[in-house]
Amino acid sequence: MTTTLNDKVALVTGGSRGIGAGIALRLAEDGADVALTYRQDAERAATVVKQIEAMGRRALAIQADGADPTAVRGAVDRAAADLGRLDILVNNAAVFLVGAIDELGSADVEQTIAVNIRAPYVAVQAALRHLGDGGRIISIGSNVGERAVFPGLTLYSMSKTALVGLTRGLARELGPRDITVNLVNPGPTDTDANPADGPNAAAISGFTAVGRYARPADIAATVAHLASPEACYVTGAVINVDGGFTS
Questions:
Q1: Residues of the chain with confidence (pLDDT) below 70
Q2: CB burial class (10 A; 0-12, 13-18, 19+) of residue 4?
Q3: How many domains are there within the chain?
Q4: Which one from 121, 156, 213, 233 is the annotated catalytic residue?
């Protein structure tokens, strides 16, 4: 366990499972107190909280639906209030709706835009009331934002590509405040939603240069670096942690 993030407080949206849980645990390992949001599964969120507390860190699980801007703002404010400050915001929560463009309805489009685009924007707005000099904003995008290898990914790909503009615009806007803003694009990652032993895993792995899925910890390692003091001169960057998927 390192102390790189001692005395820091992080909020990880969608931190109860998969990549989000991996990020929450890694930030705690590096010394941060961590709040995380979840939409439905309180039990899984509580498990992550217990794991963080077992490391000697403070932890907090907040129920919040990313499609509800009021809930997103409330989660940010509660994390800062209950843990005393906010230094790191990780926009991880997302929905993954797949289908042909003429099959997905307006409700699907609205939900994807609300959770994958509007929620990170709203979370940043709320976080800026709490982030001081040296603050960190890190969003989690996707490899399919750069390379959609299967049909049916248009809506999701569009939503994740929007985070590139959010990241670069914010980096320029917040640079004078010494707040860095970066985007991490994971490749195929072994989670419940996309298991490394799933029916399409062999084909998906074949698109990577290394021929395998990542672990959530692999993505979390890059996020932890971007959250650390050592990454103070990295901002506006789009970093692919994808095993060479986009190479």
A1: 1-2
A2: middle
A3: 1
A4: 156
